[in-house]
Amino acid sequence: MQLSLEHPEFDYVLRGADGRQALVNDRRLTRSFIVAPRALVEDWPAADVRTLDVDALAPVLALEPEVVLIGTGDRQGFPPAATMAACLSKGIGIEAMTNAAAARTFNVLAGEGRRVVAAFVLQDDATAA
Questions:
Q1: Among 74, 100, 117, 123, whose CB has the most other CB atoms within 10 angstroms?
Q2: Burial letters for 19-32: b for 16+ Cβ neighbours within 10 Å, e otherwise?
Q3: pLDDT tens for residues 107-124?
Q4: What share of the chain in percent tops pLDDT 70?
Q5: Coil vs helix vs strand at 119
Q6: Residue 69, SS3?
Q7: Whole-angstrom Cα distance, residue 17 to residue 102?
Q8: Exposure b/e, 41-74, CB count within 10 A at least 16 = b
Q9: Which residues contact 83 (CB under 8 A, 6 or more apart)?
Q10: pLDDT at position 1, please?
Q11: DSSP letters along 14-49, please?
Q12: Contact by Cβ (8 Å): 13, 118
């Protein structure tokens, strides 16, 4: 049997994520971040999905997604309705899910060539509830 290594058509692969850290390619991130197939924005100032406002989504929307995934930490949570509506009113799909689920979903959508952007809220020990 012949095996061949397939390289994805994108620069960033999420190898896993939980509420406190994520592995993007071979790099461990411990602060909230935004990732698209060809872009990584580190040190995104989001600390709690429940208070995520429209202004916090500006760097996400600047990447021109067709769908936005919000990784909400270890537990699923939801941003305020106005934040969700800001995406939907622009024709951009938005989904909130745990970080682990968002990482898996990001990789599937990126692999399909979709314009997906995922924003992950990570908590350190001082901000964990």
A1: 117
A2: bebbebeeeebebb
A3: 999 999 999 999 999 987
A4: 90
A5: strand
A6: strand
A7: 8
A8: beebebbebeebeeebbebbeebebebbbbbbbe
A9: 52, 53, 54, 56, 57
A10: 66
A11: EEEE-SS-EEETTEEE-S-EEEETTEEE-------G
A12: no
Six token digits for residue 49: 């999905």
pLDDT per position as a tens digit, 32-59: 999 999 999 999 999 999 999 999 999 9
Residue 66: C-alpha distances to residues 42, 113, 114, 116, 122 (Å)? 21, 11, 7, 6, 23
Q: Residue 89: CB partners within 8 Å, gap ≥ 6?
A: none
Beta strand ranges found along the chain (DSSP E): 14-17, 22-24, 27-29, 33-36, 39-41, 67-71, 93-97, 116-120
- The single residue listed with the structure tokens 């071979």 is 26
Q: What are φ and ψ of residue 120, in 5° steps?
A: -110, 125
Cβ burial, residue 39 (10 Å; 0-12/13-18/19+): middle
CA 5 to CA 46: how far, in whole Å?
A: 36
